[in-house]
Amino acid sequence: MIANYGYKDGSGEFFIAIDTDKCNGCGDCVPVCPAKLLAMADDEYDPLSEKTVVTVIEEERKKIKYSCAPCKPASGRGPLPCVAACEPGAIAHSW
Amino acid sequence: MITTGIDVGAKTVKVVLMEDGKIRGKAKVLSGFDQEESAREALEQALKEAGLAREAIGSIVTTGNGRKAISFAKGDVTEARAAALGAVFLYPTARTVIDVGAEESRAIKCDATGKVLDFAVNEKCAAGSGAFTEAMARALEVPLEELGPLSLKATQTIPMNAQCAVFAESEVISLIHSKTEKADIARAVHDGLSSRVVAMVRRVGLDSELVLIGGVAHNPGFVESFKRTVGLDDVRTAAEPDFVGAIGAALAAAE
Amino acid sequence: MAELQEFWRWTEYTWNNPDVDWRKAKRIAAGIDVGSVSSQALILADGEIYAFSNLRTGSNSPDSAHKAVNGAMKDTGMELSNIKYTVGTGYGRVNIPFANRAITEIACHARGANFMAGPKIRTVLDMGGQDCKAIHCDERGKVSNFLMNDKCAAGTGRGMEVMADLLSIPIKEIGELSYQVDTEPAPVSSTCVVFAKSEALGLMRSGWSKNMVLAAYCSAMAHRVSLLLGRIGVEDQFFITGGIAKNPGIVKRLEKELGIESVKTKYDSQIAGALGAALFADTLLQKGGA
């Protein structure tokens, strides 16, 4: 299951996609995010399952363009820490 | 030689007449629906203030959202270039220029000559610009120019969850219904805007000398919130921050 | 003094099935959807839809939940204690005091759509009061992909309310009026409702009629929603839920742009969330949870 957290507004589309089938629940991505956007939780989109996966915390979902800004400078962007930390490649950013 | 800069903004048109590095006259009118007409009007006013005739002015360069709409201009420059030129002219040590306008905000990294090295923009979304504070002032039933001073009287910081101006308006109304002090709400409004502006500035880096320009820099509540968000005791803002773009355009006209 | 007309107001209502005797049912399960603009309660008796209510959310989630369930139970003789399992969903789901569990509206909408429109539904679009959700599901209504936009008012019911207010047109007439134009105008260029509002004023000043402005705005919103859907793709069959499903001004333009028709059912498009929640409640009740 792919969960797209984020939003689209007048200025563009800003989504972090988490593939919960790929996510193995290791939690390595959580501490590397400087904006502390990620957390491990029960998969709320499959209410009858018990799997723990990574999510973007609810308070941050509507401002991820702004929260992710420090990792996305106007020029000279390096690899994103969360994406790099995820071995199964479950995390993707749309911008 | 006199040159003219016209900044055709989303809300107001600003005109600056410069001669040998000095401002001879300036004027500001609402942009309305006919930008060229408003630009003409502003130009007339500036000429009157300077005591100059229309024939006296040399090249006209425009900038701003409507910069291509002015048929009588010689040319135009981007908002980023105009902001950088104008800011460095006023403050030669400025290297990061933060322009917060009515509908857009931008952060510009520049060098000592006002050349743009890097920039980031918040555009097309009212929540990243003056349109946000305008909408909230209406919701609070407070005149826009009083919103800033009101926010300075706040006694507590409350979070504002909505990131969209339309939803924030509903949030403000429910805060009012739950008897929250308007001053505290006003502060939350400014904190919301400044957090979005600061996040944008972080994309070009907050490390060098900053100057705040643009109409919203007139708002003491915003400036105070910006300082708090960035963690600075002081941040430089131009004495008349909304004219800096037009100054930059006038300087570009002299090149 | 002329009465102030509230152009955004739509009709609240309650309904129950007079042919069903709930007292004979073994399982009474309920789903409560407390949204930011509207709230619904739906009661299932042995897995069949028994009663339903749809009303405007107040300033307080627990109160809205109580009002919704009381509305559904009105004239049935049922009391809250007769409901054996309640699932809450929607924006206010964690604040429903009598709910046994809260389940995200994404999962509930998919499950509800599957019941309402059938197991061939693969793409659900919910256009609600303050958000827009694009959901992919399987034949059982289980979510396989989703995207929610609740940050921005454009493409939401709230955005429509702003336009209705600006143009002084009752919200349920917007759709039809937007088609009463000679030619379809170009969409408004702003995707931000605040800027679209100024743009609309400018258009009217330059001679556009209200219907044309509506058409331009609906067109822009439909385009915007289609782009959002494009991010996860639209797979046949396609179903639209939520209040805006009742606005042909958006729905028809959206279908045209996507090149796919949405499935139409006899059910009210606004029940999907509460229905899905009630179905989950029924499943959990059968599993012995409470």
Description of the structure:
The complex is a heterotrimer of chains A (95), B (255) and C (290). Helix content of chain A is 14%, strand content 31%. Chain A has 95 residues and is α+β, with helices and mostly antiparallel strands. Chain A is globular, with a radius of gyration of 13 Å. The model of chain A has no long low-confidence stretch (mean pLDDT 92). In chain B, strands 3-2-1-4-5 form a 5-stranded mixed sheet. In chain B, helix 6 (182-202) packs across helix 7. With 255 residues, chain B is of the alpha/beta class. Chain B is built from 8 helices and 10 strands. In chain C, 36% of the residues lie in helices and 20% in strands. Chain C has 8 helices and 10 strands. In chain C, the strands form 2 sheets. Chain C has a 6-stranded mixed sheet. In chain C, strands 9-8-7-10 form a 4-stranded mixed sheet, with helices on both faces. Chain C is globular, with a radius of gyration of 19 Å. Classes of the chains: A alpha+beta (95), B alpha/beta (255), C alpha/beta (290). The A-C interface holds A 1-4, 6-10, 13, 15, 44-48, 61-63, 94 and C 101, 103-104, 106-107, 142-152, 154, 190-192, 195, 224, 227-228, 231-232, 280, 283. Strand 1 (2-9) of chain A pairs parallel with strand 9 of chain C, so a sheet runs across the interface.
